[in-house]
Amino acid sequence: xxxxxxxQEPIGRDQELAETDGLLLDVAGSADSPNRHARALxxxxxxxIGKTTLVHAVGSRASAVGLGFxxxxxxxxxxGPPFGPVLEALRALVRSGDAGRSDKPASAAWLADADPGAxxxxxxxxxxxxxxxxxxxxxxxxxxxxxxxxxxxxxxxALVRTCRAxxxxxxxxxxxxxxxxxxxxPVLVDLARTPGTLRLELHGLGxxxxxELARRRTGRYLERGVIESLLTRTDGNPLFVEELLxxxxxxxxxxxDLLVRHVDRLPIVPRRLAHLxxxxxxxVDVDLLQDASELSPDVYTAALQAxxxxxxxxxxGDVFSFRHALLRxxxxxxxxxxxxxxxxxxxxxxxxxxxxxxxxxxxxxxGAGLALHAYAAHDLTLAFDASVWAGLAGKQYGAxxxxxxxxxxxxxxxRVPDPGGRSGLxxxxxxxxxxxxxxxxxxxxxxxxxxxxxTLLRPGSDPLAACRVYTAIVSEYSQVSGxxxxxxxxxxxxxxxxxxxxxxLAEALVAGCFHQAxxxxxxxxxxxxxxxxVALSVGAGDVVPDARWAVFNALWRLGRCEExxxxxxxxxxxxxxxxxxxAALNIAAEIAFYLLLLGRIDEGLALARRTxxxxxxxxxxxxxxxxxxxxxxxxxxDGQLAAAEKLFKEACLPGGSAFRQDWLxxxxxxxHGEGAAALALEREAAAAHLEDRLTLDHTPRLIEACExxxxxxxxxxxxxxxxxxxAVNDSPLVQAQLASYGLRALILAGGARxxxxxxxxxxxxxxxxxxxxxESSQWEASWYGMxxxxxxxxxxxxxxxxxxxEWRRASDLALRHGRYTALRPxxxxxxxxxxxxxxxxxxxxxxxxxxxxxxIGAGWIERQAALVARRLxxxxxxxxxxxxxxxxxxxxxxxxxELVATGATDRAIAAAxxxxxxxxxxxxxxxxxxxxxxxxxxxxxxxxxxxxxxx
Length: 951
Hints:
- Helix 36 runs antiparallel to helix 37, helix 40 packs antiparallel against helix 41 and helix 44 (about 890-900) packs across helix 46.
- It is built from 47 helices and eight strands.
- Mean pLDDT is about 85; it is low at about 1-10 and about 250-255.
- A hairpin with a 2-residue loop joins strand 7 and strand 8.
- About 65% of the residues lie in helices and about 5% in strands.
- The strands form two sheets. The chain has a five-stranded parallel beta sheet with strand order 2-3-4-1-5, sandwiched between helices. Strands 6-8-7 form a three-stranded antiparallel beta sheet.
- By secondary structure, it is mostly helical.
C-alpha cells in the first residue's frame, strides 16, 4: 500500500496547492519576460506535518509546467562544507534529465564536478544558479532550513534579492524550532517582505482529511471513534497518523513504541549501534560512529548495513541519517539515563583524540561536539575542558562562535575542580576572551561581557588577570558604559603589567597604541617598537601580529607609508605561520585597504578579492564582508555604483556588522546624491556607535550630507568641531585631511555669508602648513596627498588668487583614486578656468564633468555642474522630448528648482544665488505655481523626471 508521501496529491492541502500553483505558473510564464526575478515559497510547520509531502507535490506540478526540480537537505549537527544543501540541490538539478538540456551554462559547469566538497564562493554559486535558471527555469527546494548555517541563509537572501532569472526557491522549516533568537527568524522576515514571496504555515489535518488519509492507508473507512482517537493522539499530524496506522495488530499506546519497532527487531549489535547513533544526532557521522562503537571494521560495516536495510538509517549520497528526526528522538528516549550517559561518553572518548590532534578548525569543530557529549555524559570536567579548547581554537581560527564556548565554560567554572589550574585561565579571562573574539559584530553583547569581567574582579585578584580585563576595555572601539573610562583602564593595565616583559605587557602596550591612534603620533612609534620587542622576547606569537600592527600604524601616520606596509606584511606572515586564520584574513584585507589609499589600485583590488575568496573557503562570513568592503568602497570612488551595490548585497550584508553596513550604505547614498537619506542614516549610526566622537573615518560623510541638503550651518559646525578636536594629532596625513575639509568649509561659509570661527581659520591654515612641511614622496600621490592638493587649491581661492593650476593638479591626483572622486575637483577646475581662462577649456571640461556625473548617476554633482553652467552661461547638451514643465520657468527659476531638488532651504538658495532670503522664497513660490505642485518634494520629483536623459 502506498504511503501518503508517495502520492502526488497531498490530502487536505487544496488551498496550499492552489497558491503554490500560482507561483509555478508565474515562474513558467516569466521565462521570456524582461521583468524576471526569483520568487520564494516559505513553508513552515511542525515536524511530520507534511512539508515534504507538499514539496513532492510541488515537484510533480513543476514538471507538468516545464520547470526543473531539485532538492537539498539541511542537517542538524552537520559539519559539511559551506553551501552544502545548495550544492546538493543544484547538482541534482544539473545531473537530472529533467533539467531539459545536456549543455550546461559555463558558469554552472563546475556543479557537475564529482567532488562534492569543492569549495565555491557565494558569488560563483549565485552566478551558477542564475545562469541555470536563465537557460531553463526551475524550482529549487531546501528542506529543514532551521538547521541551515550562515552560508545557506546568506545565499537564500542574496538569491531572492538579486536574482533576475525565472526560478522558485522553496524553503521548509520547523516552526517550533524558531525561538526568539533563532538566526532564521530575521531571514524569513526579510524574505517575506520581498515581492513574489509566499509564506505558508501547515497545520494539523481535520477529521475529513484524516479519514481520507486512513482510507488510503488501510483501504477502508475507519469508525468514527477510531478517527477521533487518531485526532486526539496526533493533533492531525499526518506523519503521526500514518505511523499509528502502519502498526501491525493493536494500535500502540505511545507513538514512541511504534517508531522504535524497527530497531527492536534488529539483532543485538545493530540495535546497540542504532542506540549509539541516536546519541550523535539525526545526521550520522559514520566515521565517528565507528570510532565510538569500538567495533571491528567488518562487524561495524555489517551492523551499519543492517540499519540501512531496516530503514532505520537512510543514505542520500554521502550523507547518512535517521529515517526522520522523530525516529532518532524515539530511539534516544527509549534509553535509560545511565545508558544514554554511557553512549555520550563513548562519543567523548572518540572525539578527544581528534581535538588533540587537529588544526584550529578541527579543534573548534570537534571541541564543540566533545563539550556537548561530555556534558550529556555528566563529565562536567571534560565538558569544561572541551569548551575552553573549542573557545581557544575558535579564537585562533577567527570564528565568532568561540564566544559561546567561553561563556559555556564560565557557566561550568564553579562545578569543576581547579578550573583555573586545568585551563590556565582566570575566571575573568572567559568573558574577556568572549568579548575579544566578537570584534564589533555585537557591540551590546561585547560591552555586557566586559562589564561582567569587571564585576568578577575581586580585591587581591591576580594582577595580570586584572591587566587582561582592563586591556580588553581599552581595546574596545567605544567606551564601555558602567565601568571606568578607557584612559583609566589603560593606566591600570600598564601599572598592573609592570615593566617585566610578559604577554600582558605586550597586549597592554598594543592597546595603548590603539587608544592613542587619534592623538599625538610623536611618541607612538617608540611605544609600538617597545611592544613588538616585548612580544618577541616572551614568544607571544599571537600577539606579535598585533604588535607589528602598532608599529605599522605609527609609521603610516608619520607618513612613512611604504615602510609601514612592509612591517604589516610581516604581521601577515606571522599570522599565517601561527595558523591564526582570522587574524591573517583581517590583516590581508587591511593591507588591501591601505594599498588602495596609496593609489595602488590593481594590487589592492587583487588582494581584497583573494582575501574574500579565502574567507569564503574558510567559512568565515565576517571576513568575507570585511574584504568585500574594501573593493566596494573602491567601486564607489570609481563611480561603479551598481557594481558596488551588488557586491554590498551579496558579500557585505550577510556577514558584516551593522555599523560597517551603515557606513557603506551612507557612501552609496551620497554618491547617488541622496543627501537627506544619508544624513538621517549617518546621524543615527553616529549616535548608536560613535558616542558623538568625530573621526576622519566617519565625519566626512556627515559633512558631505549636510552640504548636499543645503544645511551649511550644520556643515560648518561639524567641520569646525572635527578640525578643532583632531588638531592635536600631528600626523601629516591627518593634517592634510583637516586642512582640506577646514578650508573648504571656510569657502562655503563665505559664499553663504556665514561667520566662521577664528579657531577654525587658524587651525585649518596651521594644518595646511604642517602637512606641506612634512609632505614626502611616500604619500604625495595617496588619498592624503590628494586632500593636501585640495587644501592648496582652497587656500588659493581664499587668498583670491586664480587656482587653475592648483585644481589641475588636484584633478589629476583625484582621478588616480576613481572617477567619482575626481568629479568634484574637475568641477572646481572648470569653474576656475571659466573665471580665469582659458574659457573654452573650462566650458569643455564643465560639459564633460556634467556628462560623467550624469552617466555615473552622481545626482548631486550633476546638479551642481548644471547650476554652474547656468550661472556662467554654458549650454549643456540636454535632450528634450518636446515641450515639458520646465519650459514654463525662467532661467533664474530653473536655477532655483535645481537647488530645491537638492533639498536646499530658502536660506541656502539665497546664499548660492547671491540673493536675499525673501527673494529666494518668492522664486520658490513661483516655481511651485508654474509647475502646478503643492510642495518642494513634488517640485523636486518633477525636476528629476524632466532631467532624465531620453532613450
